[in-house]
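note to self: dont lose this again. the chain is below, predicted strucutre after it. 171 aa total, dont forget to put it in the shared folder this time
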Amino acid sequence: SSLFADMAEGRPLHIVLRDSTPAELLSFLVVLVREFSAMPQPVKLDLDRSSFLAIAGRVKFDPEQMANIMSNIIENACLYAFPGTVVRIEASLAEQNLLQVRVANRGRPLGSGVAEHAVEMGWRAETARDVYPGGAGLGLWVANELIKAHRGRLTLEERERWIVASIFLPL
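---
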């Protein structure tokens, strides 16, 4: 069966976790950001490389699925950011030995209930439909399911006029 079908049916996902480092995750993100930056879009991507390099420890992730996760989250951040703004990608050490990867943009406020519902399959905020009518409401749901398979979690929040998607992965 396909990974998508497994997710839709709630079956366990079979991913291959590889022992890695935050610096190796950074190398992979550099390529992804370069690909996004080559596409015509009204925002600039800013990858804070030093934030990844400053974190010691090991992190386990499936490179192919992490590409899907980060691609979905970065694409959302670019789509819903105000034109002419920056999408920031950075890492830090969070509580309980967690690697936190943040993708932050300046866009419309999330609104009530959006953070809780945005990871549900097929759910889209009213403001999202106004900005990008073509979406199916699958990107953050897919990212969330894959992050859970990595024993991590995804959060969305507004912080000081930034919309922040955070991925937490165990170190």
